[in-house]
Amino acid sequence: MVSVAASSAFAQTSTAATAAQPPADGVYDLVVGTYTGGKSEGIYVYRFDTNTGDAQQVSVAKTVNPSYLVVSRDKRFVYAVNELPGDNGPASLRGDVSAFGFDAASGQLTFLDKVSAQGNDPCYLSLSPDGRYLFVANYSVAADPGGSFAVLPIQQDGKLGEAVLGVHHEGGGPVKGRQDNAHVHSTVFSPDGQYLFTQDLGTDKLYAYRYTPDGSRGLVGPTEWRYTEMKAGSGPRHLVFGNDGRYAYLTSELAGTVSALRYHDGHLTVEQVVKLAEPGFTGAVGAAALHLSPDGKFLYVSNRGDANDISIFAVDAASGKLTRVGRQASLGKSPREFAIDPTGRWLIVGNQNSDTAYVFRRDPQTGLLAPNPKRIDIGSPVDFKFVAP
């Protein structure tokens, strides 16, 4: 386990970095995670100009299936899942998490180390509020070992230690082939940093855990109420909290919906559920990512399947409820993830199955996305993270 002294130093550095001012020239690093079975080699870094929406590739770090990324708060490190074995791999093969040093000024990544995710198909990463640990969600196509999450200590040099905790979920849901066992799809901390929510697509539950790094209850322990149960067969996937922390928003992949939930002291209560597809739509759906605009006034949600679009919702500041204001085609197949740049002027979405990403100009007042976006050709783009040099 990482030492307390080293952890504290890392946390202080990370916290201080969050107050950094945006670059004077408006140019950010854009770090992109991909699937590497086709045209991609790994993690790509672009220089993204928020004045023009132009992106120029500056580097690539070779690694297998870095489909989800997280950047340390001090911007010195990038962590990536290595999503293995996938649909056709052996159940005995565990996925990994790789650590990279990151020079934001030059846009270069340097491999540091790789540790086991302690499960199959790692698909999501999150940093603990104190910066001491990296939490990884293991979706796990295979029933054995099944859906789980693991806790990896972060050392002062940015390297990862072997997992100090692994938690497996049990159960399943009614959708054959998709809910035959547990599938942990995301690990998200509450705004107060006291609770961890793990969204399980297989069991239709949002599990709630206490985070107690002081050791008073163990590092992570179940709450008395254990979970919030979602509609059977809905397949909860990703969760984000609103800017003031009073509400959270959830995508349910199998149902193709987004839900608004009220948050209070570790409890999530469903207030609203909205279908993403147009009325009368009969094709396949697959709700994926969701992100708020920097000012918290608009929520964007991607829908895959045959829909391949992004829904745009206005957020009511008082009730947290959503009102649809628009819908934008992703101009490709399977928009799994997307990101809004820190200025709020641009939204970039990756079309995983058509090897393209599109940069849409965003209207901060209406939330709408302008036509004629800029195109980036990149193999199987999935995840996007903006970093100020």
Automatic annotation (TrEMBL):
Span of the signal peptide: 1-19
Keyword entries, A-Z: Carbohydrate metabolism, Glucose metabolism, Signal
The UniProt record lists the keyword Signal: yes
Pfam families registered for this protein in UniProt: Lactonase
GO terms assigned for molecular function: 6-phosphogluconolactonase activity
Biological process annotations from GO: glucose metabolic process
Any one Gene Ontology cellular component term annotated for this protein: cytosol
Family matches, as InterPro entries: Cycloisomerase_2, Haem_d1_sf, Lactonase_7-beta_prop, WD40/YVTN_repeat-like_dom_sf
Family assignment from sequence similarity: Belongs to the cycloisomerase 2 family.
Protein name: Beta-propeller fold lactonase family protein
Organism: Paraburkholderia acidisoli
